[in-house]
Amino acid sequence: MDLKKKEEKRVCHHCGEELFGRRDKKYCSDYCRTSAHNEVHKDYSNYMRRVNNILRRNRRILAKLNPNGKAKVAGSVLMEEGYNFAYFTNIYETKKGGKYYFCYDQGYIKLDDGMYALVVRESYVK
Fold it and tell me: What is the rounded distance in angstroms from the CA atom of residue 17 to the CA atom of residue 11?
């Protein structure tokens, strides 16, 4: 049994080169480790990158306009700042039917007068 283990050649998961050193080693170099990671994550497309950038910008805008955790702001101010209302991470619906739109922990609800109430997600809101 021990002879069989010694005879088995361990090879790099990316390039197939023989591995030396630690038994749990998977890659022969940092280059192969990075290349393998990039290959697995290649589906992270430009579209996904753009959406994530929009979400981060939206969150930054809400956080900037809401430094104390609760604020009221005109919709025109959000638009001037570059807020994109089409992108958000989730919706929280109240018992009365109101909808809060969140970008991660920062959110808003549209009020009747063209104003928006900005909030920070509380720990009990999931």
Answer: 5
Q: In what order do the strands lie in the sheet with 90-93?
A: 70-74, 115-120, 106-110, 99-103, 90-93
Sketch the domain layout of the chain as residue ranges. 12-40, 59-120
**Helix intervals (H) in 13-125:** 30-40, 46-65, 75-81
Q: pLDDT tens, 41-89?
A: 776 677 888 999 999 999 999 999 999 999 999 999 999 999 999 999 9
Q: Check residue 5 and give its pLDDT.
A: 55
Question: What tokens does 94 get?
Answer: 């109240």
Residue 60: count of CB within 10 angstroms of its CB:
15
Beta bridge partners of 74: 115
Whether residue 9 is predicted with pLDDT greater than 90 in this model: the reply is no
Find the mean pLDDT for residues 101-109.
Answer: 96
Give phi and psi for 100, each to the nearest 5. -95, 130
